[in-house]
Amino acid sequence: MKPTLLILAAGLGTRYGGLKQIDPVGPNGETIIDYSIYDAIRAGFGKLVFVIRHCFEDAFKEKIGGKFDGVVETAYAYQELDAALGDFVLPPDREKPWGTGHAVLVARELIDEPFAMINADDYYGIDSFKMMTQFLSGPAVSPADYAMAGFRLGNTLSEYGSVARGVCHCDDGLFLRDIVERTRVEKRGDAACWFGEDGTEHALSGDEVVSMNLWGFGSSIFTHLSRQFRDFLKEHGNKLKSELFIPTAVGSLVETGRVKVKVLPTQDNWFGLTYREDREIAERSIAALVAEGRYPQRLWEK
Predict the structure, then answer these.
(1) Could you count the other beta carbons within 10 Å of the beta carbon of residue 155?
(2) Domain chopping of the chain, boundaries
(3) CA dihedral of residues 117, 119, 122, 126 (deg, nearest 10)
(4) From 167's CA, which of 68, 96, 156, 271 has a CA 20 to 30 Å away?
(5) Cα 116-118-119 angle, rounded to 5 deg
(6) Distance of alpha carbon 274 from alpha carbon 149, whole angstroms
(7) Which helix or strand (DSSP H or E) is residue 74 part of?
(8) Helices 246-255 & 220-236, crossing angle to 10 degrees?
(9) Does the model's pTM come out above 0.70?
């Protein structure tokens, strides 16, 4: 059975200033999602599940989803504020989505097979998808065996502002031990730094392994997330900006021994659309990859 690709595309792009999921960066209007899906299909993924919002469903399907009709099986899940809440009552002033953990959970009814999860506005690289497919298709993979593409920190930083990064610590067998969230991470030449809450600067080499939300999961993740989201709502649900993030959810599962996460090191360069200025870098990066012959001039020939 081929693995499924779950694409988180429900964000409203507050910092970016618009729906970055459908912003073109390729020579013929291709989006970052187009390149991720092209790489995923080449790597052996057999189904796409998009997590979106009803408020931009028509625009998304016209720009993105419709082009894959007849190419690969596709399905849609909807990350609405009232989805998967159980008996919890939605706070009347809540506007912010519940985070990436919730986004994965709302796709529960659409996925029975091993799957990978990505952000719609992030470029991960060809080899990252190949490694993830090999892991998810392995004969010895159990529902409790997960994986994460481990990127080199220096290959993931923005030229236009600080970012948050989950710095990963692994054992000798490259199994994830923990993830430490570092905020206000900034590029410093070939290296980097992060700032603590008191403003203290801490040096980073740039070679640290970080998570960029390319995860591989077995079906057990939905059972875990259902329990974690229920507990999260009890403790944090009335805080209007609280979110359950996948790195936090997986980190808790690792620490309690419920799952093992294999870290798959990749030297691929990551780039994404966090700030409006990042689009120029994305366009240049895609143009260079096309010029190298890694992608055709037009991805989806009719």
Answers:
(1) 17
(2) 4-143+211-251+269-291
(3) 20
(4) 96
(5) 165
(6) 20
(7) strand 73-78
(8) 110
(9) yes
Looking only at the bridges linking them, the beta strands covering 115-119 and 260-266 are unpaired
Amino acid in the structure at residue 155:
N
CB 136 within 8 A of CB 145: no
**For residue 57, which phi and psi values (nearest 5 degrees)?**
-60, -45
136 exposed, middle or buried (CB, 10 Å; 0-12, 13-18, 19+)?
A: buried
**Three-state secondary structure of 92-132:** CCCCCCCCHHHHHHCCHHHCCCCEEEEECCEECCHHHHHHH
Give the residue from 243, 160, 251, 155 showing the smallest Cα distance to 204: 155
Distance CA(278)–CA(280), nearest Å, equals: 5
Q: Could you read off the pLDDT of 21-54 as tens digits, one per residue?
A: 778 899 999 999 999 999 999 999 999 999 999 9
Calculate helix-pair angle for 32-43, 126-136, nearest 10 degrees: 40
**Block residue for tokens 């700030």:** 275
Our separate counts of H helices and E strands in the chain read: 7, 13
Q: What is the pLDDT of residues 117-161, one digit of tens each?
A: 999 989 999 999 999 999 999 876 777 889 999 999 999 988 777
Residue 300, CA distances (Å) to 8, 29, 246 in order: 21, 11, 31
CATH H-level, domain 4-143+211-251+269-291: superfamily: Spore Coat Polysaccharide Biosynthesis Protein SpsA; Chain A (3.90.550.10)
Cα–Cα dist 175/221, whole Å = 17
Please give the single-letter amino acid code of residue 51. V
Task: Measure the CA–CA gap between 54 and 94, rounded to whole angstroms.
Answer: 17
